[in-house]
Amino acid sequence: MFVSCHLMRIRVEVSQPRRYEPYSDAEASRLIEEERSQQGPLIPIFHRLQERFGYIDDRAIEPIAETLNISRAEVFGVLSFYSDFRRSPSSATSVRICRAEACQSVGGAALLSHAENVLGVGCGEETNDGKVRLEQVFCLGNCALSPAVMVEERLIGLVTPARFDEIIASIRGSE
Ligand code: FES
User: What pTM was computed for the model?
Assistant: First the structure.
């Protein structure tokens, strides 16, 4: 009963794709300013920009470099290193599969293989229909309910291959 209800809740939640604001230099500068005083501010800045716009626009690289007094190459290098950060706008729904230890011990690797087979893509890639972007992540803080998956900002636990298929069907049927 619980599982059934939980699945129904998942269907409702993932059927509402997240909408982002169009990129704006002014808003990007404001977010950069807000994060600049953090210790190690680069990653928090990237997160804020991606949360707001859905990706990190190339136009943000120069103001980030100037604000943090580092080179544009350094900003670009860090940005390129992390596959979590998108470099272009996309309407694809982000589906992140946890690959850390607790999830791996209860089928996380098999779940990822299943996801790659079902979607026909590898980690960091979007499906041909542009609806799903498959990503990996290392611990979502939901180890007690492993294997864990995050769909955009929504955390889903106890994800079997069958439940994964339900989630993908919900995403694909939501537009
Ligand atoms: S190891 Fe997967 S949520 Fe922690």
Answer: 0.70
